[in-house]
Amino acid sequence: MTGLTYRDALTEVTGPARTLLERWSEIPASEVVQHVNELRDRAYKVFPWASIGLYQFLEIDMLDFDCYPDILDSIKKGALFLDLACCFAQEVRQVVADGAPPENVYGTDLSSDLMNLGYDLFLDKDKFGVRFIQSDVLDSQSPLATEFQGRFDFIHSSNFFHAWEWGKAIEVAKCVVKLLSNKPGSMILGSQSITTWKRLWSIVSEDTGIQFDVQVTESSFRDAEAFAWPEDLEAFRMHFIIRRLS
Ligand SMILES: C[S@@+](CC[C@H](N)C(=O)[O-])C[C@H]1O[C@@H](n2cnc3c(N)ncnc32)[C@H](O)[C@@H]1O
């Protein structure tokens, strides 16, 4: 079965996620694929979301940032890193596997069940010193908001902001900013839905056997007001061309 939120079981796991599962989790190479597929299916029964059904949790996007070595260096020297809406917290594992002291690294999510599934995916409940904080990012009385205001030098968050409607997204962003250190150079970083869009078309391509060229560009709205977005904001939209190749 393949749909927008679920794809067929993987036949291979490659890239940084495989490295992490083999080296950090010490899963034998021959067992990685089965382990990942079983975990995905178990999680999807409870959380039937695209991020799980489409194996988004195998994407580690910190590595894609040119500034990652500098971020890592800062965390090693005492800066605090948070993965917000971390789900299984693959980014957290990557940062710690790359030498960041676990006491400087945090993960947070609304659901502790998801963070626990992360332990099952990475098989590291006993050896992992990272603190996970179960909190609603919008809750000003949460452990996250009350204990960590202004504490984080780096806040990573992927596939999260775009899930909210515009007004709520601004509220979320403000809550995130409250967690951010006031030191110049502190940053919020992550990735967003354009990747999801491309993935959608790669699934359509896989299913239909038709090859497409997918082009995505971001541009400003020509008339922000027409879209009921505040005039003083730089509004972006995604243009796309799906060109059939075969
Ligand atoms: C699409 S998943 C993205 C997970 C992960 N960042 C990734 O890219 O693989 C969105 C995550 O946001 C979490 N979430 C949703 N609402 C939240 C809230 N109000 N506060 C904190 N986390 C929330 C969900 O539990 C889920 O783990």
TrEMBL record:
Keyword field: S-adenosyl-L-methionine, Transferase
Signal sequence interval, chain numbering: none
Protein name (Swiss-Prot/TrEMBL): Methyltransferase domain-containing protein
InterPro entries (alphabetical): Meroterpenoid_MTases, SAM-dependent_MTases_sf
Organism field: Paecilomyces lecythidis
UniProt record similarity statement: Belongs to the class I-like SAM-binding methyltransferase superfamily.
Keyword Transferase recorded: yes
CDD domains with a match to the protein in the record: AdoMet_MTases
Annotated pathway: Secondary metabolite biosynthesis
